[in-house]
Write a structure and sequence with these properties.
The chain contains 20 helices and eight strands. With 452 residues, it is an alpha/beta fold. The protein binds adenosine-5'-diphosphate (ADP) and magnesium ion. It is found in: Cytoplasm.
Length: 452
């Protein structure tokens, strides 16, 4: 299977890239939703991850739909380093990747992703508090709240914000020793230190940090000795008035199997959550992202309405949103098409289906007829008077936007109308939406009601 994917990659990336970068990579296995690849060294892993990671994910997930992530580990000497694609590589001649100093020697930290900066972080209602708090910490001024605890569901920007803080501190306070790592890496380092009898080094190093960021702290739940060590590290740094930033997928109090004393410690500072994205934020992110894609792929065009469609239809997880856009551009650039709604629906069918809201045609019809105060039978029935025809068109439009039903199918469900009638209705509402404030408002109200 990997052989076949490789073959496809060869066609996409070209012979040179292939020989140099893809050929030496092996699929080590798939665990859960992660496809793990063996790479010859961490520089190679970083390069492949950054340049072909998205593409590989796309290819692999075509064959193994459960795969949502690709990871890279160094094939030889695996135990010596953490195995995520962002591992800092000692050999890597990439100046930006050495943002974290002082941890050479036995302790290496995760590299920072240079796309995760404040510049690329789109702020909206759901994340404005988290963003403001992160900004404050990134100034590197006197510690006012400790720790900063960021929590929220997967793909909402926790890691992005933490990296952004680290990048900003790099410039604002180059004198500070900033360390970012995942809780998993913390545990790994701890276990390794125990095994190598280097606990003194471990303690000394962690206690010499000025700003410590630990990502996904829920990972240490249930891991007693790691918790214990984390607690001591945490206290030692807080006592010295060093800034700590923690992230987790839920609030401190809700992390099961985490010691009470740790929970209460984590709650001492500022606890802020990243809410699920709303439509406006998703649209903002899509606009920013597609702007940079359009620069990367000059010659590609995007039809109106595509981003709005995606913002409506794809769930709250920003990673999924980005993945969809990446695939769409990759696909369009391969086939040399304009990016249209149809292309998006076609090439993102699986993603759209997976994040489909459970809105049915019936619900839309019911909601719309209630809104316009007409009977459901009149909405579906044959009468063409304006007072029925307009709500009918609104409902058709919403069906097209909010469900993945085809035009003929929508037509059938509207009393057996032809798909051209549906198309006409949808177009009419698209026009009216910009000309007629009342219609625009109706649509907004209806959509909110239907999204629940
Ligand atoms: P988390 O750590 O919360 O699971 P990440 O920080 O890894 O999520 O974010 C997932 C992806 O979504 C990343 O590529 C990140 O850049 C992007 N992302 C999340 N929120 C935003 C945002 N507000 N603006 C721009 N990109 C975002
Ligand atoms: Mg994360």
């Amino acid at each position: 299977q990997w052989g076949q994917i490789k073959q496809e990659l060869l066609e996409t990336v070209g012979r040179n890239n292939f020989k140099h970068w893809i050929e030496p990579v092996d699929l080590a296995g798939i665990t859960g939703d992660v496809a793990l690849f063996d790479v010859p060294n961490s520089f190679h892993g970083n390069y492949v991850s950054q340049n072909f990671g998205e593409l590989m994910l796309f290819k692999v997930s075509n064959m193994a739909p459960e795969v949502r992530r690709v990871d890279f580990k160094v094939a030889a000497n695996i135990a010596a380093r953490p195995s995520d694609g962002t591992t800092r590589s000692e050999q890597a001649p990439q100046p930006k990747k050495t943002a974290i100093r002082a941890f050479d020697g036995p302790l290496t930290c995760a590299a920072l992703d240079d796309r995760f900066t404040f510049d690329t972080f789109v702020v909206g209602k759901p994340n404005e508090l988290a963003h403001a708090a992160a900004k404050r910490v990134a100034e590197g001024g006197p510690v006012t709240f400790n720790p900063l605890f960021l929590y929220g569901g997967v793909g909402l920007g926790k890691t992005h914000l933490m990296h952004a803080i680290a990048w900003e501190l790099e410039t604002a306070r180059p004198d500070l020793n900033v360390v970012y790592l995942s809780a998993e890496q913390f545990m790994y380092r701890f276990v390794q230190a125990l095994r190598d009898r280097r606990m003194m080094d471990f303690k000394e190093m962690f206690r010499s940090v000025d700003v410590l960021m630990v990502d996904d702290v829920q990972f240490i739940a249930g891991k007693d000795s790691t918790q214990e060590e984390f607690f001591h590290t945490f206290n030692a740094l807080v006592d010295q008035n060093k800034q700590i930033i923690i992230s987790a997928d839920r609030a401190p109090g809700e992390i099961a199997n985490l010691e009470e004393r740790i929970k209460s410690r984590l709650q001492c500072g500022l606890v802020v959550d990243l809410h699920p994205t709303d439509y406006e934020l998703r649209l903002g992110i899509l606009q920013t992202k597609s702007g940079s894609f359009l620069k990367q792929y000059p010659g590609l065009n995007m039809a109106d309405g595509v981003l709005e469609f995606l913002a409506h239809r794809i769930s709250t997880n920003v990673r999924v949103l980005e993945g969809a856009l990446t695939r769409l551009f990759a696909f369009a650039s391969l086939v040399g098409h304009e990016i249209t709604l149809e292309l998006a629906q076609d090439c993102l069918a699986d993603i759209l289906r997976a994040s489909e809201r459970k809105v049915s045609i019936e619900e839309i019809q019911r909601q719309v007829s209630e809104h316009y105060n007409i009977r459901l039978s009149d909405m579906i029935g044959p009468k063409r008077v304006r007072s029925f025809a307009r709500p009918r068109q609104v409902a058709m439009y919403l069906c097209k936007q909010m469900t993945s039903r085809s035009l003929p199918e929508i037509g059938r469900r509207f009393g057996g109308r032809d798909h051209t009638t549906v198309m006409h209705g949808v177009r009419r509402i698209e026009e009216l939406k910009v000309q007629d404030a009342q219609i625009a408002e109706d649509l907004e109200i209806l959509r909110r009601a239907l999204e629940g």
